Amino acid sequence: QVQLVESGGGSVQAGGSLRLSCQVSGITFREYAMGWFHQAPGKEREEIAVVYTDGGTQYAESVKGRFTISRDNAKNTLFLEMNNLQLPDTGMYYCRPWGVNYWGQGTQVTVYS
After folding, report:
1. DSSP letter at 88?
2. Which residue among 20, 27, 102, 111 is least enclosed by CB atoms within 10 Å?
3. Measured on CA atoms in the order 61, 67, 69, 70, is the torsion positive or negative?
4. pLDDT value, residue 92
5. Order of strands, edge to edge, in the sheet holding 91-97?
6. In this structure, are strands 18-25 and 77-82 parallel, antiparallel, or unpaired?
């Protein structure tokens, strides 16, 4: 049974930084592409960053140049380094392996001016 535990969220002033983590269990982590998703208040959840099994990455335009996704296959952990946070970055953040229909509880990020 897959388990996804996101952590690292918090409240931060605009321009600040946070580092999110996602501890994954129940799957062979290194065999899955992994995504970070953002759900702003009142909006749909959208994928903002992906890291493939070969380490390649892809980003939504809204976060490109500010966020960095990475993975540690030895620790079954996914990361999202978020820099220069802006008010629209506020919301819940979730991780998910591609092809797995399961969500964790997410972690809340609040950016204030």
Report:
1. G
2. 102
3. positive
4. 98
5. 10-13, 107-112, 91-97, 34-39, 46-51, 57-59
6. antiparallel
